[in-house]
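Customer escalation, tier 2.

The customer says the design service returned an amino acid string that "doesn't look like it belongs to this structure." They asked us to rerun it and document both sides in this ticket. The original structure tokens are below, unchanged.
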């Protein structure tokens, strides 16, 4: 290419603000900072929308030998890890919202089947957001009425699948939501219509959800219906309830334990468990009369005998919650009498030990030492299980026993094993024993005692685990965790502590990234649960390192298995990261892009905060993108409201960005959900005035005047501000003022300030002064610092401001001195502004 022609090409590119691209150049770079995440199904661009981005291909070409084979492969992000069928149900919810063509009922029914099969096999609970999707899907693919035919229903979702749904609902009491209750009610309705056969499972699931949601009265009515269907109070169940089913009622913390085998076989144990569930629900609501009435009803039905331990456990917890010492004494004896000599499964033993520990803890807190000592003496007369021994050790520490004395008590416990022939039942101290003692010492803020307990355990060969040390001692907890890694662990009891350790390590500035990742990787290899706070903390750690793919992989792996509350925890943490002023703009945008795609349920409030944040960071282009994402959303709790539009207009006004203002205004014109009101038009006047379009702004004033709602006082101030900035605005200001006078509108000093500033803004400061002096003589206005400051700041040009200043110093010296006390700032063009607030809200 001739040099002259090349020069012309270069200068043309420069003048057109276009990049210069030459395929033969050895060193090239893309000046756009666009980032594309195509691997996980969405794209996000980080650049100034007002800068052109070249579409030219920048790949280096080699004709003889293709070097692409040696390039680093583009990393693919993980697909979202969802429960089987959940994606189809999410698609149904989304298409229903969009009023689009829905997937076939067969596909939805298969998704529901796959979902419940997976939940049943993994013995997992149903989260609240999953329950909502399942409920909508079942309503879509099952007949709404009995008359639509049972054959079609059987072909879509089988009775076996619905039974598995009820089984999953039995273990979902802690996370009960209205959708859980409605889902259980749907299954119960199918049962009453004769479409389901397993009366016991469906009834138990429905009652579990009702009790967990506080509807104990309805649960009791369901139970009475169940007894009526089975032949009043006495019935013989054809299929005895399994032991694990009886324990599963404890999902609402009912402390229900297994009954004796004969009771289960006759059906009495199952009914007793259900009545205990209702009793516990009334107790949780602290309904004393209902608790007494239900207890008498249980007695009358013959369900409370000398072997029933679950009911005394419920009543003992109830008495402890009410600090009823008489009730505690009575129900402790009832509980202990049934505890002696009974045989229960390990889970029931654990619940019994928890009740004993809570009783002794209450005695310590309320200084009922005599009662506590009597409880311990009664326990020691038998052969307490190891879990009860642990509670006794904590009681001993709380009543003043030293570490050496507790060590001798450990010897006594081990010596008691001589009377037990089966070595599997021997009581031996372990890490849980030491942990309970250390936790007590930590609760008393006594680190020396905690260290002595740890030393006591080491003397007996018990090394501390990750649960032993407080997370505040990060180094000690990390050492304990590393020693724990060398051991074979068959349980996941340390998982909560490891999650806390990861959070503490991530928040600490003294531990490097690899240390945190090693602990997190070990937890991941064990396929253990990552708590929401752990995922949120690790996400921030990756974001600070610009490891966006790792953030996406982390969220896609865990976020879709969380409940709505847990997802909110993760989401809000990342939103707070975006809103932090210390976070660079580019990282805030990356984090927002990830939030938008992973947490589609992000409501309007946080999105509006993010939009406002980008406006404040002088990135109106990003702010408008956030607004457009709300505008294109289909969820009613996400789409913009008039307040959202007002916030966007005010944001463009602060940044004086006309392009962004026009984009938002055009969206308003197309939004049929928004009715223009005075407040919205006020915001438009403010925005267009700030973006140097005051004449267009005044058109909205005319719309306000012609509207049924009419102008507010703020509208008048805002319109006069527009007149102050508009060519020949004094004529419009006089027109507005004349109409106000004619309508006898009350005009205070702030209104006079806006009026005289509008007159002075068009260069006629002398006329504005005359108007003000005449009003002062007539007693229509009290000239104060704000009026003088508005007149001064509204005057156009340095000369006009000097003229107003000279007049004010001579005429209103005291008010001018008050104005000067606010301070003054001088712009580059020499114009001065006092520190008074002339802003007006819509």
């Amino acid at each position: 290419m001739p040099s002259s022609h090349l020069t012309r090409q270069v200068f043309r590119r420069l003048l057109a603000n276009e990049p210069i691209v030459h395929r033969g150049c050895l060193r090239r770079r893309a000046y756009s900072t666009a980032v594309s995440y195509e691997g996980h199904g969405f794209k996000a661009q980080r650049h100034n929308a007002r800068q052109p981005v070249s579409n030219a291909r920048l790949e280096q070409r080699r004709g003889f030998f293709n070097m692409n084979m040696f390039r680093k492969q583009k990393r693919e992000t993980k697909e979202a890890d969802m429960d089987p069928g959940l994606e189809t149900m999410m698609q149904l919810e989304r298409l229903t919202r969009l009023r689009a063509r829905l997937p076939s009922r067969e596909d939805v029914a298969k998704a529901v089947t796959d979902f419940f099969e997976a939940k049943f096999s993994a013995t997992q609970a149903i989260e609240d957001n999953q329950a909502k999707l399942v409920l909508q899907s079942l309503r879509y693919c099952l007949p709404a009425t009995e008359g639509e035919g049972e054959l079609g229903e059987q072909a879509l979702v089988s009775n076996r699948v619905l039974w598995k749904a009820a089984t999953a609902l039995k273990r979902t009491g802690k996370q009960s939501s209205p959708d859980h209750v409605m889902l259980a009610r749907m299954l119960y309705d199918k049962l009453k219509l004769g479409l389901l056969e397993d009366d016991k499972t469906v009834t138990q699931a429905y009652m579990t959800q009702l009790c967990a949601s506080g509807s104990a009265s309805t649960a009791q009515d369901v139970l009475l219906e169940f007894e009526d269907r089975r032949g009043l109070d006495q019935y013989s169940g054809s299929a005895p309830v399994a032991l694990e089913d009886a324990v599963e009622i404890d999902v609402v913390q009912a402390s229900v334990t297994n009954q004796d085998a004969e009771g289960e076989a006759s059906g009495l144990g199952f009914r007793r468990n259900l009545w205990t569930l209702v009793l516990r629900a009334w107790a949780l609501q602290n309904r004393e009369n209902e608790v007494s009435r239900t207890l008498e009803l249980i007695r009358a039905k013959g369900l409370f005998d000398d072997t029933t331990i679950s009911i005394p456990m419920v009543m003992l917890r109830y008495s402890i919650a009410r600090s009823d010492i008489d009730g505690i004494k009575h129900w402790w004896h009832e509980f202990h009498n049934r505890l002696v000599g009974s045989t229960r499964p390990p889970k029931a033993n654990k619940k019994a030990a928890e009740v004993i520990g809570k009783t002794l803890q209450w005695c310590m807190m309320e200084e009922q030492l005599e009662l506590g000592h009597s409880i311990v003496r009664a326990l020691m007369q038998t052969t307490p299980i190891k879990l009860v021994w642990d509670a006794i050790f904590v009681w001993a520490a709380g009543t003043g026993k030293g570490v050496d004395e507790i060590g001798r008590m450990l010897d006594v416990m081990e010596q008691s094993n001589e009377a037990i022939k089966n070595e599997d039942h021997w009581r031996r101290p372990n890490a849980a024993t030491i942990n309970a003692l250390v936790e007590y010492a930590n609760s008393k803020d006594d680190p020396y005692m905690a260290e002595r307990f740890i030393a006591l355990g080491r003397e007996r060969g018990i090394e501390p685990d990750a649960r032993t040390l407080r997370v505040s001692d990060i180094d000690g907890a990390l050492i304990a965790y590393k020693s724990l890694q060398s051991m074979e662990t068959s349980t996941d009891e340390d998982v909560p502590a490891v999650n806390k350790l990861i959070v503490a390590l991530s928040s600490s500035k003294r531990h490097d990234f690899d240390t945190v990742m090693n602990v997190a990787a070990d937890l991941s290899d064990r396929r253990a649960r990552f708590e929401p706070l752990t995922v949120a903390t690790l996400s921030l750690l990756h974001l600070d390192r610009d490891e966006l793919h790792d953030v996406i992989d982390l969220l896609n792996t865990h976020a879709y298995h969380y409940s709505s509350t847990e997802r909110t925890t993760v989401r809000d943490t990342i939103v707070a990261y975006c809103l932090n002023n210390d976070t660079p703009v580019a990282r805030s945008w990356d984090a927002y892009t990830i939030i938008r795609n992973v947490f589609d349920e992000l409501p309007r409030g946080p999105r509006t905060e993010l939009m406002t944040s980008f406006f404040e960071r002088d990135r109106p282009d990003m702010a408008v993108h956030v607004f457009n994402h709300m505008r294109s959303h289909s969820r009613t709790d996400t789409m913009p409201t008039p307040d959202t539009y007002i916030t966007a207009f005010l944001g463009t006004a602060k940044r004086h960005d006309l392009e962004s203002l026009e984009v938002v205004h055009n969206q308003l014109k197309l939004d049929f959900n928004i009715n223009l009101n005075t407040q919205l038009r006020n915001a438009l006047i403010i925005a267009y005035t700030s973006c140097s379009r005051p004449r267009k702004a005044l058109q909205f004033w005319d719309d306000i005047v012609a509207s049924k709602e009419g102008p507010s006082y703020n509208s008048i101030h805002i319109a006069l501000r527009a007149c102050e900035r508009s060519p020949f605005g004094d004529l419009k200001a006089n027109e507005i003022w004349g109409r106000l006078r004619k309508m006898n509108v009350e005009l205070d000093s702030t209104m006079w300030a806006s009026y005289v500033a509008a007159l002075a803004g068009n260069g006629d400061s002398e006329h504005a002064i005359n108007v003000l002096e005449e009003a002062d003589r007539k007693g229509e206005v009290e000239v104060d610092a704000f009026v003088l400051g508005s007149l001064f700041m509204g005057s156009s040009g340095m000369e006009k401001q000097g003229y107003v200043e000279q007049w004010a110093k001579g005429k209103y010296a005291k008010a001018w001195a008050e104005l000067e006390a606010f301070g003054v700032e001088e712009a580059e063009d020499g114009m001065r502004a006092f520190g008074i607030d002339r802003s007006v809200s819509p």
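Tier 2 assessment: The sequence is consistent with the input. The longest strand covers residues 824-826. The first helix runs from residue 3 to 15. Sent an explanation to the customer and offered a walkthrough call.
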